[in-house]
Design a protein that fits this description.
133 residues; alpha/beta; 2,3-Dihydroxybiphenyl 1,2-Dioxygenase, domain 1; four-stranded mixed beta sheet; 2 helices; Glyas_Fos-R_dOase_dom; VOC_core; VOC family protein
């Protein structure tokens, strides 16, 4: 065992507008948040996990998925995002072939059905069929 095996790890990423991030993660995604030191926010995730989002004036959006949301009903989740004005087709079909709503269909060798979207800071997030069923 190492000192890391018992550590309560968490992830973090930056945003250029913390107020817009708060509105998005609370009003659109329905997550709980707490204000933290130095303008950061802590997002409470299902299952007890947390993510910290910190302000960064020279923020560069992540070009990879920083947060995945496994859900039992992917189509309903995508419809909910779209009804709240979230663009869910962010990649061209030449990169990730998807339906008109942005859902990429997985399979036994390709993983779960998934749909990517961006937060107000441009970070890439995903909602996917829960592989646990």
């Amino acid at each position: 065992m190492t000192v890391f095996s018992d550590a309560s790890a968490f992830s973090s990423f930056s945003a250029d507008d913390i107020d817009a991030a708060k509105r998005f993660y609370v009003d659109v995604l329905g997550l709980e948040l707490k204000d933290e030191a130095m303008g950061a926010i802590e997002l409470g995730l299902g299952g007890g996990g947390v993510i910290f989002i910190y302000p960064k004036p020279n923020h560069q959006p992540a070009t990879f998925t920083v947060l995945n949301f496994p859900v039992s009903d992917l189509e309903a989740a995508v419809d909910e995002l779209r009804s709240k004005g979230v663009e869910t087709k962010i990649y061209p079909d030449s990169e990730f072939p998807s339906d008109e709503r942005g859902i990429v269909r997985g399979g036994p060798d390709t993983g779960p059905d998934i749909c990517w979207f961006r937060d107000p800071a441009g970070n890439v997030l995903a909602v996917m069929s829960d592989p646990r069923g």
